[in-house]
Amino acid sequence: MHIHPYERLWIRLSVIMLIVFGIAIALSSLTFGIEIPGATRRAVATGLPADATPEQSWIRELGPGRYEVNMIARMWGFDPNEIRIPKGSTVTFYLHSQDVLHGIKIRGTTVSMMVIPGQVGRATYTFDEPGEYIFLCHEYCGLGHHVMSGKIIVEG
Ligand code: CUA
């Protein structure tokens, strides 16, 4: 079969790109610890507070500058949707969905994840800079998706 030289060039380029992207994904997941949600993040996973349930939200101070937030995502809001903490606090978020797939992205931080019904999303972040950190739902979840937000106020 005759293959035009340009055609052959493009086929080779696409294969090279696939290999490069594959290496990039492997490297970034090894270097930055990026994980996809799996069995270890299910609601039954150990290491979660015993009372972390999808029904009840709370903000709890574990010690000086250490907080735990049990957060509920539902159509179309977060509970709690306003969190006040002092500067320098390390916060661990546990996220539950009461209905459909949601997401959370806390602007200006590394916290960004899907909130999957039946699983608990967990993320920890240290808020070193005072200010207002808006968080949003970033998975389309219905008519009110665009109003699903809240804020973290870090007092200086
Ligand atoms: Cu919840 Cu979009």
Characteristics of this structure?
about 160 residues, alpha+beta, five-stranded mixed beta sheet, 10 strands, single chain, binds dinuclear copper ion
Write the layout of secondary structure elements.
Blueprint: H1 5-32, E1 58-63, E2 66-74, E3 77-79, E4 82-86, E5 89-97, E6 102-106, E7 112-115, E8 121-127, E9 131-136, E10 149-155
Parallel strand pairs: 2-5, 4-10
Antiparallel strand pairs: 1-2, 2-3, 5-8, 6-7, 6-9, 9-10
The structure holds dinuclear copper ion.
What does this structure look like?
The protein has 156 residues and is α+β, with helices and mostly antiparallel strands. The chain contains 1 helix and 10 strands, in the order H-E-E-E-E-E-E-E-E-E-E. It has one helix at residues 5-32; strands at residues 58-63, 66-74, 77-79, 82-86, 89-97, 102-106, 112-115, 121-127, 131-136, 149-155. The strands form 2 sheets. Strands 1, 2, 3, 5 and 8 form a 5-stranded mixed β-sheet that branches. A hairpin with a 2-residue loop joins strand 1 and strand 2 (66-74). The relative contact order is 0.17. The model is unreliable at 40-46 (pLDDT under 50). Dinuclear copper ion binds at residues 102, 137, 139-141, 145, 148.
